[in-house]
Amino acid sequence: MFDKISDGFKSAINKIRMKDDEKALKKALDELKKNLLKADVHFKVVKDLLREVEVETKKAGIGKANFLKALDKTLTKILTAPGNYGFVYASKPPTVVLMTGLQGSGKTTTTAKLANYLKEFKKKKVLMVAADLQRLAAVEQLKQLAEQNGLDIFYDENSKDPVDIAKRGVEEAKEKFYDVVLIDTAGRLAIDDELMNELIKIKNEVNPHEIFYVADSLTGKDALNTAKQFDEKLDITGVILTKYDGDSKGGVALSIAHQVGKPLRFIGTGEKVQDIEVFVPERIVSRIMG
Ligand code: GDP
């Protein structure tokens, strides 16, 4: 999954053969820069990473081992924004989660993926709430996903008010002792005030513990920009990156925490309900460094 980035790191590491060779360090850093930019890592992330790796390596003494250590440390730092990692439960159930994102980002699919993950692997009682009343087929899609995977859903086909649906969904979860409520909200093709106002209203009504922004990794830099805009309005608590299986470059995963300032929490790796991975920075760093 991180093959391209991993290859870039390895070819940079191989440039350092001798000790105390400034020229070799420069070559390695140049190689790293070239490969990271090719993998679509944001230029500011590349700049910070190179600067820090250079300083750390020189401080410890130029050599392969110190270069590797500096890379490991810097990469972990870049991937780690302050906040929660994995799925974090509220002290008093139900944990209320708003799923937000643009239309087509994979929000509805990810809602079902997350519900399935929490049910199957964490043995939690999870309720999905169909509050995306914007896209005509969204409620039907979530109903089908619920049926196919034995997941619980709250919906009301007669309601036109997503704020009311979200509120009633959370009430239902409280009454029936659910551990987690995942609210699938509406998206748009682009950010507009109407969408944001609806989301802010839902947020104010249900007071969520987590607000996840679902971003399509295939949209590259746009994924970062829209995540930032959602964060400004909603103060999101994490990002879920979808369609990573189709992203041949992969750099956006490396840029999110650094550029948005919020942690990447999960990665979508396919169309099936099981295709979701928890994002743990240290684990990803060891995969990238091989
Ligand atoms: P929404 O409009 O944001 O609710 O988007 P959907 O959940 O309907 O997803 C849009 C399309 O993306 C669907 O065809 C999904 O199957 C697909 N999709 C979602 N997540 C992933 C993923 O991680 N990998 C792949 N390959 N496809 C995905």
Automatic annotation (TrEMBL):
Q: What keywords tag this UniProt record?
A: Cytoplasm, GTP-binding, Hydrolase, Nucleotide-binding, Ribonucleoprotein, RNA-binding, Signal recognition particle
User: Which residues of this UniProt protein bind GTP?
Assistant: 101-108, 184-188, 242-245
Main localization is cytoplasm
Q: GO biological process annotations for this chain's record?
A: SRP-dependent cotranslational protein targeting to membrane
Q: Which domain of life does the protein's organism represent?
A: Bacteria
All copies of domain SRP54-type proteins GTP-binding, residue ranges? 263-276
Q: Give its localization.
A: Cytoplasm
Q: Which GO terms describe its cellular component?
A: signal recognition particle
Q: What is its EC number?
A: 3.6.5.4
One molecular function GO term is: GTPase activity
Q: Which reaction does it catalyse?
A: GTP + H2O = GDP + phosphate + H(+)
Domain remarks in the Swiss-Prot or TrEMBL record? Composed of three domains: the N-terminal N domain, which is responsible for interactions with the ribosome, the central G domain, which binds GTP, and the C-terminal M domain, which binds the RNA and the signal sequence of the RNC.
Question: Subunit notes for this chain?
Answer: Part of the signal recognition particle protein translocation system, which is composed of SRP and FtsY.
The role this protein plays is: Involved in targeting and insertion of nascent membrane proteins into the cytoplasmic membrane. Binds to the hydrophobic signal sequence of the ribosome-nascent chain (RNC) as it emerges from the ribosomes. The SRP-RNC complex is then targeted to the cytoplasmic membrane where it interacts with the SRP receptor FtsY.
* Family statement: Belongs to the GTP-binding SRP family. SRP54 subfamily.
| Entry protein name | Signal recognition particle protein
Q: Which gene encodes it?
A: ffh
Q: Which residues of the full protein are shown?
A: 1 to 290 of 449
